[in-house]
Write a structure and sequence with these properties.
The chain is an alpha/beta fold and about 300 residues long. It is built from eight helices and 14 strands. The protein has a ten-stranded mixed beta sheet with strand order 3-2-4-5-1-8-9-12-13-14, sandwiched between helices. A four-stranded mixed beta sheet has the order 6-7-10-11. The chain starts with a strand and ends with a helix.
């Protein structure tokens, strides 16, 4: 079961995340080695172009192996043929990347383009969720990472009319560009969203989420924790918190803390109504730990966990 959502925070195009988890996923396809970049969360056309160009130089490295990429910019003068192309690429591309910027602005534009196209403000969300069912990968960077979650980070401020994200990482919400001085934000979200798992993602780190419905009707998630120390330009070191030893912080809904290392994994089962969940942590050394008690798990393998949930 391949991940269908990659939620990550980075300073630049660190090699491990961008090659192993994004580009290689597109190149695995025999006949659809495509990446579609959507920078709608950036306010101006110039800023959208800047967002894309921060990725373009990296994508260019892999065109010799068949990688094909495209971008679509938001403007106030979109024509029907433009929007036809947008939704075609959104539906068919092997990998879709939602860029950085302002989460709320991007969500508003996702809704607006569906309204323009067919009078359905939820069309973008529906297609993103349909991509998930077909096993395709949707990637969120910075604002895009926020948008792929169940709820946006600003949920706890109470200022949002609609706090929902795109929801392909069910009952997960993340803070981006995390550092220890911002752990309070993770606590606030854990208090505001007790049904969600809350993660603080430092630069350069992320979570890859695979998700499916089990025979029991519960949602099963396998969450891989990713840390990347590959970006090695000396003047950028301050911005790359994983190189300083920062882990992926997690706050339980009862206020307890856990820190995930790269290579750790979390298995999770969620009831259809979202009120019950079971989970197991698998460390990068292979130890299976019960999520709630933080003691040795009764489960012996991923298969065992699935069969009993």
């Amino acid at each position: 079961m391949n991940p269908t959502a990659l939620i990550y925070s980075s300073h630049n195009r660190c090699e491990y995340i961008h090659r192993t988890w994004i580009v290689e996923r597109a190149l695995q396809s025999i006949d659809n080695k495509t990446i579609f970049h959507i920078p709608f969360s950036q306010p101006s056309l110039h800023e959208q172009e800047y967002d894309f160009n921060n990725f373009k130089w990296y994508y260019d490295r892999f065109t010799q192996w068949g990688l094909s990429y495209s971008v679509f910019y938001w403007t106030d003068s979109l024509k029907k043929e433009d929007i036809d192309l947008f939704f075609h690429n959104l539906w068919h591309s092997q990998v879709v990347v939602l860029g950085g910027g302002m989460s709320i602005l991007g969500m508003a534009r996702f809704k607006r383009i569906g309204e323009i196209y067919c009078g359905d403000s939820d069309l973008f969300r529906k297609i993103i969720q349909e991509r998930q069912k077909r096993g395709l990968l949707t990637v969120g960077f910075s604002a895009g990472a926020d948008q792929l979650c169940e709820y946006l980070c600003e949920t706890c401020t109470g200022r949002l009319r609609d706090p929902r994200g795109l929801g392909i990482a069910r009952n997960i919400t993340c803070t981006l560009h995390h550092e220890m001085g911002r752990i309070g934000e993770v606590y606030e979200l854990a208090h505001a969203l007790p049904q969600c798992m809350i993660f603080g993602l430092p630069n350069d780190s992320g979570i890859a989420v695979a998700q499916e419905t089990l025979w029991s009707g519960n949602t099963f998630q396998a969450i891989d924790f990713i840390t990347d120390n590959s970006w090695d330009i000396p003047e950028d070191q301050y911005h790359i918190k994983t190189r300083m030893g920062t882990k992926i912080d997690h706050i339980y809904n009862d206020g307890r803390h856990w820190a995930f290392n790269g290579g750790d994994r979390l298995l999770r089962a969620i009831s259809p109504d979202g009120h019950w969940q079971n989970a197991v942590i698998i460390t990068n050394r292979g130890n299976m730990i019960d999520y709630w008690s933080q003691n040795q798990s009764q489960y012996t393998s991923e298969r065992d966990f699935i069969d009993h949930n």
